[in-house]
């Protein structure tokens, strides 16, 4: 009987795939959020005393006003047109001999090695395929790797900037992993789970490629885009915390090149700096994956959310990420909520100065 | 993705074993979403203890992570999860005329797991899926062997009475 029960349990989870597309980053973020819990609780109390978040909003209002991020952007619906997957701005041709289909409750997986699967937000139905397409912001957005520091050194965990690049057509995209990294190298032993996550922040689309680096590169090279969210950087209306993670001269994350600001005046200056930069046209976008990048997090005040007893969970309102690609030939910033601007060396220096980072 | 300052081997461990750990978490909680939460919580502890426990040398991070997960699921059985899980994932009990009658064995088993009290579910998974002895489970969970024995027995009894699962037993015997 023992073996029979074990077989049943094995079968019950054999088709389960994680909803998280970037587990390492997700673990780091989770660790950090615990550390912040008490800090956020204190911030909430202060805001309550001051009469709510409205005061913070008034203090942050820049001149001219920034383009405000739309926190209720409609989610795109993946579909196929003439053999091409269309979802948000992404256009992904279905490879010859493959199929693209939507997961449905009760419907088993078919030919996962040659399927592009539109996964459901509730995780029902098939979740296994060589290419998974999901829509909607979640806690893994954007992808990143985490760097931990010893408890004796503050026990801090920092997140890197994602690997930013530009899809043909102009839509910005973020990668979780360099295609030529050891982790994506072909020939890993059986049971190894390859996963390259390609996130299109403006479209709220995440594509997971369950294959090695060269194979993922071939799929990515067929992707095209029709962006619609360019323009000035879309920024949150109410920011209480700004965080900057910058690479050092070797391109690595370090505590010395990290800053977190809660001072309202400084936060307002940071938002103003980001909001006044010149727009980059989609045709002029140039971010490449070989560039180092800065990561700026702009977070609203924490709030207590009543989770529903049934039905879908409320959309996350966890703030906005701005990724600034560095390099003499192409230095530009992209907001996860929309917008792309030139961000030159002077602007980078000013930003780092506001965060108290020298050089 | 691995940064050079990340503890050696941690990113590789998570990348390679995360799906398997999520499946284990799904069994322990009866729900994929809660299972993934449980996995990430445990991996935070593994991450923090990575250097101290010398996982990159000769330690066994997966065994440690699984133990953390089992203990957390067991502790949660005395708190909120036994109420939260059914709310997050409404029971899919098979019934006459059920439009999802053709769903596969996996869904039936997961639905049955969700119906079990959390403590019984954890013991069932450790005993019959992980293959631990009653004494090993008692040591891991910090309870008596008698508690393990009684909860395992009740879990099996409940599963046997689950109509959908009776079919599944038959399927697994013939398939």
Structure description:
The complex is a heterodimer of chains A (359) and B (175). Chain A has 359 residues and is α+β, with helices and mostly antiparallel strands. Chain A has a domain at 43-71 and 230-354. Chain A is built from six helices and 21 strands. In chain A, the strands form five sheets. Chain A has a seven-stranded mixed β-sheet with strand order 5-6-7-13-12-11-10, with helices on one face. Chain A has a six-stranded antiparallel β-sheet with strand order 17-16-18-19-20-21, with helices on one face. In chain A, a hairpin with a 2-residue loop joins strand 3 (84-87) and strand 4. In chain A, helix 5 (264-275) runs antiparallel to helix 6 (345-354). The longest helix of chain A has 27 residues, at 23-49. The N and C termini of chain A lie far apart (67 Å). Chain B is mostly helical. Chain B has a single domain (10-92, 101-174), classed as Butyryl-CoA Dehydrogenase, subunit A, domain 3. Chain B is built from nine helices and no strands. Chain B has helices spanning 10-29, 32-49, 61-76, 81-88, 105-115, 118-129, 134-141, 145-161, 163-174. The longest helix of chain B is centred in the first third of the chain and has 20 residues, at 10-29. Chain B starts with 9 loop residues before the first helix and ends with a helix. Mean pLDDT of chain B is 75; it is low at 79-103 and 169-175. The interface between A and B is large, with 59 and 57 residues.
Which helices and strands, and how do they pair?
The complex is a heterodimer of chains A (359) and B (175).
Chain A lengths: L1 H12 L9 H27 L3 H8 L6 E2 L10 E3 L2 E4 L2 E4 L5 E4 L12 E4 L12 E5 L10 E3 L8 E3 L3 E4 L5 E4 L20 E5 L4 E5 L3 H9 L2 E2 L8 E2 L5 E7 L5 E9 L2 H12 L17 E7 L20 E6 L6 E4 L4 E3 L2 H10 L5
Parallel strand pairs in A: 1-15, 5-6, 6-7
Antiparallel strand pairs in A: 2-3, 3-4, 4-14, 7-13, 8-9, 10-11, 11-12, 12-13, 16-17, 16-18, 18-19, 19-20, 20-21
Chain B lengths: L9 H20 L2 H18 L11 H16 L4 H8 L16 H11 L2 H12 L4 H8 L3 H17 L1 H12 L1
